[in-house]
Design goal:
The protein is of the alpha/beta class and 122 residues long. The protein has a single domain, classed as 3-Layer(aba) Sandwich (Rossmann fold). The chain has six helices and five strands; from the N terminus they run E-H-E-H-E-H-H-E-H-E-H. The chain has a five-stranded parallel β-sheet with strand order 2-1-3-4-5, with helices on both faces. The longest helix has 13 residues. The N and C termini lie close together (11 Å). The relative contact order is 0.19.
């Protein structure tokens, strides 16, 4: 079973994404900010990370850069998808520069969520 780490400070979006992906046989771990992502990565392996861009403590852009800079090469290469409510503020180039493989705009399209997660974890 593929393990997904979701970082999203909205519990509504977190719970919806969790239900949708669990229905697709993914194992979900959910946290509220980028620092918690790094804490989780320090103790477990994941197949993909979904990162909200706007979060307290550490936002998605800083978190993505921190993941890509990890000493553990396997963990530094984990696929990451940005989740953003203000895609206008960033271009795909900005997301790529931070280390993201792809991005999803809010409100989340759950078909896109499932297809992108599947494409990056196969």
């Amino acid at each position: 079973m593929k393990k997904v780490l979701i970082a999203e400070d909205s519990s509504v979006i977190q719970n919806l994404a969790k239900k949708i992906l669990e229905f697709q046989n993914f194992e979900i771990h959910a946290v509220k900010n980028g620092q918690q992502v790094l804490d989780e990565l320090a103790k477990a392996e994941f197949d993909i990370i979904l990162l909200d861009i706007n979060m307290p403590v550490m936002d998605g852009m800083d978190c993505a850069r921190a993941v890509r800079a990890l000493a553990d090469k396997k963990k530094a290469a984990i696929p990451m998808i940005a989740i953003t409510g203000n895609a206008r503020n960033y271009s795909m180039d900005d997301f790529k520069a931070a280390g993201f493989n792809d991005f999803l705009a809010k409100p989340l399209n759950f078909d896109s969520l499932v297809s992108q997660v599947k494409a990056l974890t196969e």
